[in-house]
Structures are given as structure tokens and as C-alpha cells.
Amino acid sequence: MWQQTLAQPLTFSGIGLHSGRPVTVTIYPAAANHGLRFVRADLPDRPEILAHYSKVVDTLRATTLGEGMATLSTVEHLLAALRGAGVDNARIAVEGPEVPIMDGSAGPFAALLAETGFKTLPWLRAYLRVHRPVELREGDQWMRVVPGEPRITYTIDFSHPLIRRQRFTVPLASEAFAREIASARTFGFLKEVQYLQTHGLALGGSLDNAVVLDDAGVLNPGGFRFPDECVRHKILDAMGDLALLGLHLYGRLEVSRGSHEFHLRFLQHLMDQQASWRVWLPSPRTRETQPSWFQPTRWEGAPA
Ligand SMILES: [Zn+2]
Questions:
Q1: Which residues contact 149 (CB under 8 A, 6 or more apart)?
Q2: What is the value of pTM for the model shown?
Q3: Cα-to-centroid distance, 244 and ligand 1 (Å)
Q4: How far is the CA of 61 from the centre of ligand 1 (A)?
Q5: 198 with 138, same domain?
Q6: Do 250 and 139 lie in a common domain?
């Protein structure tokens, strides 16, 4: 499986959830092994922030990355869209302190990326392949990864009558992301939104970029996009956080009642369990270990 980048640069704008102000983003193609890197294009010297879990500085309600004095928040939906589309390398210039919230999902990002197209790079993609289970449990939250084809199963349990217990499974690294996950919106409770706004937060938050619930039901006129939109959005968040691993996870991931904070604690825990995984480069020539989704490139022999 070869690394990918964008076929050409892509620019879009939207409002920031917390500031309520417009933000412009340009995503540039990047060379193999560059990884996903953000640039605070509005600051002097345009500081760069690597999309890596070691750079996370805040996980309250969104994932915020930081490098020195420069921070960038709400990176998770865009990262999930890039990973969902199979983009390994890109330089993401953001003209503000947060990635635009768009409609609260990764749907607009996924559509823009698909329209822009992709370019295959002549380097193999590296996976973190799990060969022994790794688990982290804290109270009623737990996460575990076991050997197997890449997929994620998420379970949530809320006392709200329209959510309750929801569970969803989706393969990682496939069109399933675009179809099942990308358009699931973030959700919140009216009381929480009102509290945030009186404290000067979520000023850009509205029914245009979140599903908002009160005690009786959904306030958005169109209701949910999927009956289990909430758990699908949690998978979206987890995929965005998973992109901060820097490698593609090759294993079956299960999450119960996660949060950005817990997803990231799990990534750190996983990296610490070095006897349980290895870095794996599925090559077109190592046929015996190739996963079923991997289509080997035909080797016609060296030119004479
Ligand atoms: Zn989210």
C-alpha cells in the first residue's frame, strides 16, 4: 500500500466554533514521509505544528495541538477526513487558531478532498501492526486493540432517551468512512451550549454545526442524519485522534465511552507497550502477509 497526498492544493473557509469568526484553510500536497503538519499561517514566522499525539495541549471538547506559543484547536474532524480519504502527507495552512467547524461533521472535508483527487507517492505506508492485545481501562471507560483486520467498534451509553446505548462497527481505511461516518455531526445538550456561550465559548455554535438536544428531543428541524448519528460521530472523533499516532493502526480497535482525553491516553499506553506491536510495511512483494484488502502491484521483472 503506497503513501498518498493530494493531487493539487485545496482552499476552503468556514467559521471557527469558539470564536465565531471566519477561518481560511489551504491544504497543500506534501512529499512521502512528511506526515500531516499544520501551519498557523496567520502568525509571524508561520509556526508549524506536527499532527502527533505528543503535541496535544488540550482535549476539553475538542483536540488542540500546540508548538511553543502557537496552538490550533478542533483538528480532529479534518484529520479524520484526511485519514478516511487515505491522505498520508499534507501541509495544512490555517489562518486562525481553530479549524473551521463546517456543519459539525467531516462530510464537507471529505467531499472537498474527493473532488480535489489524490496522488500516489513511491513510498510504502507504515502501519503499527498489533500482534498482542493492548487494553486501557479507567472506571467505566475502556479501549482495547486486538490483532486483526483494521476496524473500529464504538459503544456509547447516555441517559438521554434519544441516545441511550449505541454501538457501531466500521472498517478502517475504506470507502466505509465516506458512506457511514463522515457526515455524522457533533452533538451537544442545550444546557451545555448555553453554559459555554455565557462563558464566551462556542460563540459560532448553532443548529447549523451541531445536533442539539434538550430533555424532550432534537432541536434541529431535520432531526438526526442517522438514527445512531451520535455513536458514528464518536467514531469520527476517534479516527481523528488516531491520526495523531503518525502510523496507520493495523488491528481491531474497540472503544467504550471514550473521550478525546481517553483516546489520547490510550495512544500513549499503546506506544508504551512496544512488545505488543511492530511497524509493518506491507510490500507488494511480501505476499504471505498481505491483508485481504491489499491489491499487490504486479511485478513484471526488472527491465533488461
Ligand atoms: Zn467531534
A1: 171, 252, 291, 292, 293
A2: 0.91
A3: 15
A4: 8
A5: yes
A6: yes
